[in-house]
């Protein structure tokens, strides 16, 4: 496996490359999930914009989210060698100009496998802990699929929490020039709400033409987040 010096060299190679590369990260355990579908839509939209895609399906690639001593050896040494798994994922981030992460929102946060990926790979000495972060200038879009309905009162707080975690506490700290959260409510076929007493109320599942229209609108909202993200890069350029 390459030493940290090799990772630094890879940074220079990646930033000087002519080909624009996007790392699309999927964090869902089901290959037939709505999250997987949205990741596929994002890949198609990015490909149409001229990006070469590196699709990282954390579950399909059997990523182990448990932090080990090898993943974070010798904490005080910024130039340490990480585990082979972590080194490989670091190279994939470095090679990407932009990162798009697709995930289901669990308890107003990210799934455990995605949190483990962030903890292990966005590591001290690599993603932060230097006067100039190695990830400086990269851009990231977080697409979170929520079961809450668009009218649910929890939604503004959920958006705020995700932005605080992913934008302010993570991406900005690691030097990303642009980080934004695209929150996608209404992911469930059966709307789920709470009544005045706090009881869960599950509505009737949509089907037929109504279901087709519902998820057509869902796809359009997701694609709009991707398009807005790409448009901001074109304006900046």
Structure summary:
The chain is α/β, with parallel strands linked by helices. 41% of the residues lie in helices and 16% in strands. It has helices at residues 4-16, 34-48, 84-95, 112-121, 155-171, 208-236, and strands at 21-26, 52-57, 98-104, 139-145, 178-184, 192-194, 200-202.
Helix-strand layout with pairing:
Blueprint (H helix, E strand, L loop, with lengths): L3 H13 L4 E6 L7 H15 L3 E6 L26 H12 L2 E7 L7 H10 L17 E7 L9 H17 L6 E7 L7 E3 L5 E3 L5 H29 L1
Parallel strand pairs: 1-2, 1-3, 3-4, 4-5
Antiparallel strand pairs: 6-7
List keywords for this structure.
alpha/beta; 6 helices; 5-stranded parallel sheet; 16% strand; 237 residues
Q: Report the count of strand segments.
A: 7
Straight-line N-to-C gap: 35 Å
β-sheet strand percentage:
15-25%
Assign a percent range to the helix content. Answer: 40-55%
Q: SSE order in H/E notation? A: HEHEHEHEHEEEH
Quaternary state, please?
single chain
The global form is globular
* H/I helix tally: 6
Largest sheet: 5 strands, parallel
Structural class of the helix and strand makeup?
A: alpha/beta
Cα radius of gyration in angstroms: 19 Å
């Amino acid at each position: 496996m390459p030493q940290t010096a090799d990772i630094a060299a890879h940074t220079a190679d990646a930033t000087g490359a002519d080909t624009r590369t996007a790392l699309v990260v999927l964090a869902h355990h089901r290959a037939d999930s709505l999250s997987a579908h949205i990741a596929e839509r994002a890949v198609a939209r990015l490909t149409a914009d001229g990006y070469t895609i590196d699709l990282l399906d954390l579950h399909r690639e059997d990523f182990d989210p448990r932090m080990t001593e090898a993943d974070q050896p010798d904490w005080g040494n910024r130039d340490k060698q990480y585990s082979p798994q972590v080194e490989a994922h670091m190279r994939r981030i470095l090679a990407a100009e932009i990162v798009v992460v697709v995930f289901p929102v669990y308890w107003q946060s990210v799934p455990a496998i995605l949190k483990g990926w962030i903890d292990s790979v966005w590591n001290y000495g690599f993603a932060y802990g230097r006067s100039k972060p190695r990830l400086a200038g990269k851009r990231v879009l977080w697409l979170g699929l929520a079961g809450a309905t668009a009218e649910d009162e929890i939604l503004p707080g959920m958006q705020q929490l995700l932005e605080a975690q992913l934008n302010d506490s993570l991406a900005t700290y690691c030097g990303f020039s642009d980080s934004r959260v695209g929150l996608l409510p209404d992911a469930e076929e059966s709307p789920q709400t709470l009544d005045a007493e706090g009881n869960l109320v599950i509505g009737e599942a949509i089907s037929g033409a109504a279901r087709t229209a519902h998820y057509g609108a869902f796809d359009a909202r997701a694609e709009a987040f991707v398009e807005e993200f790409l448009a901001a890069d074109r304006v900046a350029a």
